[in-house]
């Protein structure tokens, strides 16, 4: 338990909060997919109590490349660490792709994510040159290799003497069918995975069957706009039997048309007129306030600084 230095009382850590949320039978955990500090700050400002760092969004925002297995452990861990520490009280679940190598590398990935302040991560069974789970042509490692990834993750967690929620993801549905995917899910849970994640579910009936077959292991649902799976709301996912639902493309999907339109207007009309038509223009100060301007100024004043004593 973390200690509050001001009064000596203890409060739960972010990962303890996440585990308590998973154990709560009356709730479903809905996580917006964020990919940088700005989108994470907006989600936090709106009151989200769990965040999800999307691997696809991280790859596109950090590297400017499609989600084709090009992001490294350092790319992902650095981004996750920054997001997780914007508010250490809020749990962050982060994509960890394949674990970025063999058992030793998977162990290093888990240790690095834990030290970065990440509360949960998911590891999948694609080959190292993976691709987005909602694209075709995915290749898988053998079940034994996948099971060893999960075992390595659990071993690393124990060795680090800390905690992180280990989510086992399988992309086997597309090529091996439901029973083949379930064989892998069961192997992952046997090795100590906390949560089961079947990627690419194609119907409500399959989703219900999956949650039933995996019980009592909690299950995660991936809602990808325009992807292979049904467009469940958080409450619909709960009704099916899921404990966690992530919306990895939520922010990307909103940002893309808005930015594209504004840039097009700037090029064609001299300035982004659609922003003007919205009836409101955001000043730099207002935008900075999303990212903690007031808190930083208050901190400076409280520490005896004078740079912001007259405001900004």
TrEMBL record:
Reaction(s) the record says it catalyses: (2S,3R)-3-hydroxybutane-1,2,3-tricarboxylate = pyruvate + succinate
Pfam families xrefs: PEP_mutase
Residues spanning the membrane: none
Family matches, as SUPFAM superfamilies: Phosphoenolpyruvate/pyruvate domain
Keywords for this protein: Lyase
GO molecular function term, any single one: methylisocitrate lyase activity
Protein name: Methylisocitrate lyase-like protein
Originating species: Amniculicola lignicola CBS 123094
